[in-house]
Design a protein that fits this description.
single chain; 173 residues; mainly alpha; 79% helix; globular
Length: 173
């Protein structure tokens, strides 16, 4: 009984997420392809991209290429902002720097390519590019400010929590 209870407690977040996915799939069947492809991409990122490769491109000391890649990944992403957090956890487990994680989340929330295309069509190219010109430096400034303010112990705690998160991945074999 104790072992079952501790196992349930350990995987509580994953169980709640799985139940949420089941509810979404049952009540919103039009989301099935998007949910499936998101989980597939997340799993492939976790399994196929070696830690050393990700650390070289997005880890501490990656400089401008890490910043650009973080923006590219966040801007090309599809789905709501809460979808960024499991991806960020995988990136953290693979060794991405804290500032690149923050830039990735900021880009996901504000610089998505489909949103930019919609704005160009609905509000005009000038508006869309002006907003983008403000958002990009803003995201970088905010990421660097957060990195400077958050204590190292807290960043380490966040990375440790990401390392123990249960993120769905495809089964090998």
């Amino acid at each position: 009984m104790n072992k079952a209870k501790s196992l349930t407690g350990r995987y509580r977040t994953a169980i709640i997420a799985a139940l949420g996915l089941v509810v979404l799939i049952v009540f919103m069947p039009e989301l099935r392809p998007k949910i499936g492809s998101s989980l597939l991409v997340l799993g492939l990122l976790d399994v196929w991209v070696p830690r050393e490769t990700l650390m070289r491109f997005m880890g501490p000391g990656s400089g401008l290429k890490g910043l650009v890649l973080s923006f590219a990944l966040g801007s090309a992403a599809a789905g709501p902002l809460y979808g960024a957090f499991p991806v960020a956890a995988v990136l953290m487990r693979k060794g991405a720097s804290f500032s690149n994680i923050l830039i990735f989340i900021g880009a996901w929330s504000t610089t998505k390519i489909p949103m930019l295309l919609f704005e160009m069509n609905a509000l005009g190219v000038r508006f869309a590019l002006a907003r983008l010109a403000i958002d990009v430096p803003g995201i970088i400034i905010i990421a660097l400010a957060i990195q400077a303010i958050v204590p190292t112990a807290e960043v380490e705690r966040i990375y440790a929590a990401a390392a123990t998160m249960d993120v769905p991945t495809p089964k090998k074999g």
